[in-house]
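Sequence and fold:
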Amino acid sequence: MCFHSLAPSLCLLQNRYSFAVTAWETLTGEVPWAGLSVTELVLAVCARQERPPLGGLAAASPFPFFADLLGRCWDADPARRPSFGELATLFEEAAPQFEALRCGWKWADETTAQSRPKPKA
């Protein structure tokens, strides 16, 4: 939740955190903090600085990219979270690897780009 009237400068910082939670939920198919009451959730996130687990994402390719990205968006210091401009740049830089996945190729670096099969029509 963003309280525009209380701290407008924090709203965008909170939105990056929310983006990461939504992305985590989309990637894992799980509900973050399932079963917690609102009070338990506030204590977990704000007081204990708990975040959804990234272990499963970090272990499965191409998800280490996302695990690192989400972790940065959840930094306890909102000022250290990447801006949406930085996020866009990171996604643009990773786009060739995502395209390879979409076409059924394995995660690959630029040295193997020439040996990739052509996408199926």
About this structure: Residues 73 and 81 are 5 Å apart (CA to CA). Helices lie at 8-28, 38-47, 55-59, 63-73, 84-102.
